[in-house]
Amino acid sequence: MRHAFCNTRMKFVAGAVLLSLASVSFAQSATLVGGGATLPAAGYAGNTANRLMTPSTGTLLAAYGSANGVGTTYCQTGSGGGKNILAGSVSGFNVNAACDGTSPIGFGGTGLSQPHFVGSDSPLSASDYSNYLAGHTATGAQPVQAPAVAGAIAVVFNKPQVRALRLNESQVCQIFSGKIKNWEDAALASAIVPMPGQTVTGPIKIAYRSDGSGTSFAFTNHLSAKCGTDATFGGNGQATQFQTNQDYATAAAAYLSSYSSSVGASGNPGVITAIGANQGSIGYAETANSVQSGTQRASISNDSAATTFVDPATFGGPLPVTVTYDKIIGSNNAAGRPQLASLSPAPAVAQCVAVVDPAAYAVPASGYPIVAVSYFLVNAKGNGADLAHVQSLLISPYNTTVRSNVTKIGAGQGLSFLTAPGIDSSFASRCVTQ
Q: Which of 34, 76, 134, 339 fits 89 for a cystine, CB–CB 3.0-4.6 Å?
């Protein structure tokens, strides 16, 4: 599905021309250890039921491994945990710590000094960059970041009396600000298609991510940009008080007390589990998790086509994007919107931290309206004998041979490949050097 983004500061490149990157064969066999974001995990590695994932057929990492003679593992820590492990300086997080429990603090590595790669749905922030530099003072390494895929964030729910939920963006804002507290609220009536003979009533419990989450970053990136007066109630004096943040409790701090009730959970699979355990609940999660689990999800209209309700699973791309280099996420402005800031101190090698401005996908001009951009992050140095593998993995989402063998990213999965001019083999070899 073609999906248009709008942004006053950057324009997306028209068309969807895939970069033709030749697959490279390696004689050496290795296993690359990575993890992080749960949003793209189904597309990267497959079944998300287990925190530590071995890629299955049709996934990006399996296709990459087959093309390049290398194995991979992927641990679902969440984006924040993944970036903490990459940094190497955040207490409690270590690449060799176990990948288990509800909030893993490691990737399950053995004898590694650093991870081979990290996935994150929130780009590097100022604090992430500072943590990374603190953890790599001895080597002088810098992080390398490239956009990898995009994903649709689904509004998921558990209400057996509801056959279909068709939300407009105003209703999404009112639900997550606590303005709509109950299923029988008159403001929600137009969205509900009940099961035959059923009456839909009861309080709404909000399910949200309790961990550092790129899904939360992208979801609140949309809410802070879109909600406006739809989230205004109780005389708070502002158009919206949503903040863009990878911590949902921080992002929605002004509204948490307005919910009828709420429950936090770690990882997109954790939110899906919480939804399943709480009838009447509504939350947000990556679409692929709802597809795998069979969890109910809403169709949502974009304000540009208010009567067309879009199932997020139809999101498929590929999407053309434009990147900006050597920028990180700085502080939010007064409206809760994230602002790009220059890397400080400046990196030794320029144009190796590539970011898509969150403003560019906060309010898509058409199509499904709640979208995340997910990134691969690697180390510029310290890769040793795995250097060539790390270089090729970084740009594997743009490798035409790899893409041709991926079935878990595309329409029906809620995930999309990107086209990002400049993210190619030259980028990888210039930025990942040791």
A: 134
Give, in order, the Cα–Cα distances in Å from 368 to each of 371, 374, 409: 8, 17, 16
* Fold for the domain defined by 32-151+316-329+347-431: D-Maltodextrin-Binding Protein; domain 2 (3.40.190)
Distance CA 69, CA 43 (A): 19
Contacts of 203 (CB under 8 A, 6+ apart): 181, 182, 183, 260, 261, 280
Structure-derived torsion over alpha carbons of residues 109, 431, 416, 401, reported in degrees to the nearest 10 = -90
388: alpha, beta or left, given left = phi > 0 and alpha = psi -120 to 50? alpha
Domain 153-313 in CATH 3.40.50.2300? The answer is: no
For residue range 26-36, what is the model confidence (pLDDT) as tens digits?
333 489 999 99
Per-residue model confidence as pLDDT tens digits over 347-383 = 999 999 999 999 999 999 999 999 999 999 999 999 9
Q: What's the 3-state SS for 343-398?
A: CCCCCCCCCCEEECCCHHHHCCCCCCCCEEEEEEEEECCCCHHHHHHHHHHHCHHH
